[in-house]
Amino acid sequence: MRSKLLTLVLLQTWQLCVGTQVNIWEGTACRHKVKMTPYIVEGQNNMAVIVCPGGSYFWHDSHAEGPEVAQWLNRNGISAFVLNYRTAYIPAYATHFRLLFRGNRYPDPQDDLRQTIRYVRQHAADYGIDSTKVGAMGFSAGGHLVMSAAELYDVADRPAFVGAVYPVVTMSAPYVHKRSRRGLLGDSRTSNKQLRDLLSLERHVPRDCPPVFLVNCKDDPVVDYRNSLLLDSALQANNVDHKYLFYQTGGHGFGASETKGSAECRQWKEEFLKWVREVLSDKR
């Protein structure tokens, strides 16, 4: 009985933390409806993380890489915003209609994340957020998205820090994740060398890149583990403040789950919490 009561109290408390979904484009010239869900920790001057689930830029792997991440961050005193950025969606995966019609493609997801960063910073006081401590965390294709923000946005729009978990990095052979490339570029542009080069993030790390937390596993069966090695090398070459955790086991898609992956790879969460607090304390 006590455990049931405790569970009920925790659920009720948790529900109070979840804010109303926001259309990040409401009130702008953009007609798209892109939803962001706030998960807010009470207090003032909190740090915040915008969470971008993976899904090959075709869909969202939404639980372990979305709400579960936000809940874990909340339990550790960090507010979160889960972003359902635009993807190509399943019909585009099942067919090739984007050979004839535009559909969703680059730069739509990147535009959505940029707008979300702006929105959270503009409403920081309402959420009890420190506008200088708004970072972004992404998984798989979402990792590519948040690193795009760190590298390709104007300095004013970049996140304060980035967490890239088993990220897609390159759009070029031999280590490209072809499904993500097709999802992001669109069927009519997968052979566009200019876009492939632009979105191969190992080629565009700026020296003033925000701090990066990078983690992946050697046994990843989805995204070739050498994507992260490429990014780590580029970050090192440009003297970017970063931490790279390379685990032997864990695979792909474990997110913030307490059961997926391996005991080894699940250590990333505690490592991230220590790292981000050190990074933000250095900015004081």
SSE order and pairing:
Elements: H1 2-17, E1 22-23, E2 35-39, E3 46-52, H2 67-75, E4 79-83, H3 90-94, H4 108-122, H5 124-127, E5 129-139, H6 141-152, E6 162-165, H7 178-185, H8 193-198, E7 212-217, H9 226-237, E8 242-247, H10 268-282
Parallel strand pairs: 3-4, 3-5, 5-6, 6-7, 7-8
Antiparallel strand pairs: 1-2, 2-4
Helix pairs in contact: 4-6
What does this protein structure show overall?
Helix content is 36%, strand content 16%. It has 284 residues and is of the alpha/beta class. It has an eight-stranded mixed β-sheet, with helices on both faces. Helix 4 packs across helix 6. The chain is globular, with a radius of gyration of 18 Å. Mean pLDDT is 93; it is low at 1-16.
The best one-word shape is globular
The strand count comes to 8
Helix content: 25-40%
Number of helices: 10
User: What order do the SSEs take from the amino end to the carboxyl end, as H and E?
Assistant: HEEEHEHHHEHEHHEHEH
Q: Outline the low-pLDDT stretches.
A: 1-16
Q: End-to-end span in angstroms?
A: 47 Å
Structural class: alpha/beta
β-strand percent reads: 15-25%
Task: Sketch the major β-sheet.
Answer: 8 strands, mixed
Rg calc: 18 Å
Strand order in the sheet with the most strands: 1-2-4-3-5-6-7-8
Please name the defining characteristics of this protein.
8-stranded mixed β-sheet; 10 helices; alpha/beta; disordered N terminus
Task: Give a quick summary of the entry.
By secondary structure, the protein is of the alpha/beta class.
